[in-house]
Amino acid sequence: MAPVAPRSGDAIFANVERVNAELFTLTYGAIVRQLLTDLEEVEEVNKQLDQMGYNIGIRLIDEFLAKSNVSRCVDFKETAEIIAKVGLKMFLGVTASVTNWDVEGTTCSLILEDNPLVDFVELPDTCQGLYYCNILSGVVRGALEMVSMKTEVTWLRDMLRGDDAFELQLKLLKQVPEEYPYKDDE
What we know:
Layout: H1 9-15, H2 21-39, H3 42-68, H4 76-92, E1 96-99, E2 107-112, H5 134-146, E3 149-157, E4 166-175
Antiparallel strand pairs: 1-2, 2-4, 3-4
Helix pairs in contact: 1-4, 2-3, 3-5
Function: May play a role in vesicular transport from endoplasmic reticulum to Golgi.
Family: Belongs to the TRAPP small subunits family. BET3 subfamily.
GO cellular component, one term: cis-Golgi network membrane
């Protein structure tokens, strides 16, 4: 039987069940607002959003692998391309470009062409240290950890902070070899 080809992000996005984009955006905004009220410190909200995203990412990877037919990626570069072109399209309806690779091939940037989380959002002066979309960095970090890649994911540019784009930096810290609970010869 021939291997199944991976599905494109557009094909998957067309076939997945979606919620209304405005409802999603406003609900996320309400969550961020509630965190700001409860935690009071912007840095604590950043940490909480990252942790929430991480928890989502470790669960989301199963759905991604099941619906995308993506086989094991050869290296970190291929993994970043799959995140940018298939993963983000599948779950957010957007794509990203992968740029700024370092010489070792362990650090790159994902530049989002669009970000539906920030529709209707303006940060007040009291929230200038807030990484409003920090949940996305946690999602990417959690998903990559589930496929044996320990990473650091940080925001380099954010349009809510006056930058010209949304840019996430992915840095591969360690590739953890998979361990199987049994051996084939036993």
